Amino acid sequence: MQPPAEHVHWLFATGFLLLGLCLLAEVVVGTEVWRRRAWRAYLWPGLAFTLGVLMWPVMTFYTNSAIHMLAHGAWAEVLMFAGAVELALVRGKLRSPAWGLAMAAAFGVSGLAFLVHEQNAWMFERSSFLHHVLGWTLLVAAVFPLARSVRPRSQAAAAGFALTFVVISVFLFCDRDAAPIFGHMSPLAGAPRR
Q1: In angstroms, rounded to a whole number, what is the distance separating the alpha carbons of residues 80 and 142?
Q2: What is the domain range of residue 51?
Q3: pTM
Q4: Residues 135, 165: contact at Cβ < 8 Å?
Q5: Of 60, 127, 160, 170, which residue is 20 to 30 A from 138 by alpha carbon distance?
């Protein structure tokens, strides 16, 4: 028996919330204080990489079309790549701040994948609306990792980057397969679920 897709979205929402809270804690206390314990420096990049690895089973077992499989595969690849780059930056294996652009690329690819793989209009149902919102949020928020790579000490860029993951998690927690959005739902979407 396969759980509803919304349960998988909620599990990933939890992962993104943890990731965002780790980044936000680092912004609040400062990088020097955050990294007094060596393991904390690896926490959020490792979590991003792990979320990428966990996206592969989602791509394999929870997709119902080729476009969904390609979108989930793209998310898995960019999450793993960006997480690995951030891990290498923390470890000191990579030194150039230009490697910070990997996360901006991950945001861009993820945003485009959200928009491309949602084939219904904004107001078709809640899931469609949230996919459009998530796609545009990630595309616009790609400015934060871009700013972090240009100005690594910018508190505003770091806070925006952290809050992006929190916002994404909130959107994912709002996801339900067939539910009305703003009181509207297409008759083609099926029966609403509670």
Answers
A1: 17
A2: 5-187
A3: 0.87
A4: no
A5: 60
